[in-house]
Write a structure and sequence with these properties.
With 102 residues, this protein is mostly helical. 93% of the residues lie in helices and 0% in strands.
Length: 102
Amino acid sequence: MGKLLDTYNAMQKEAEEAVEEVTKTAEEDEILQKYAEFADAELAKEYKEDYTKEDVIKLAQKLIDRDISIQENIEKVAELQEAGIIMAKAFKVELSQTEDSE
């Protein structure tokens, strides 16, 4: 009975992982579709009908790369801000200890 229960639990876990992967893939596809639609709309505004599918793909990829870069920079700034706060607190403690010892 224990073996059967273990097999069932393993199958259940695999099914949950498969559903999670499909959901993740669907979300990624939706995001890519939005970038492609935006790129297509922008190219249509600028060039009317004088652009290709490759142009849409290239612009969408550049937009994705830009957004990734922006997100990375936001994360770097947050890390640097946190590091600055930690250093400032340490400096303040060091100064107060120095003043107390004098």
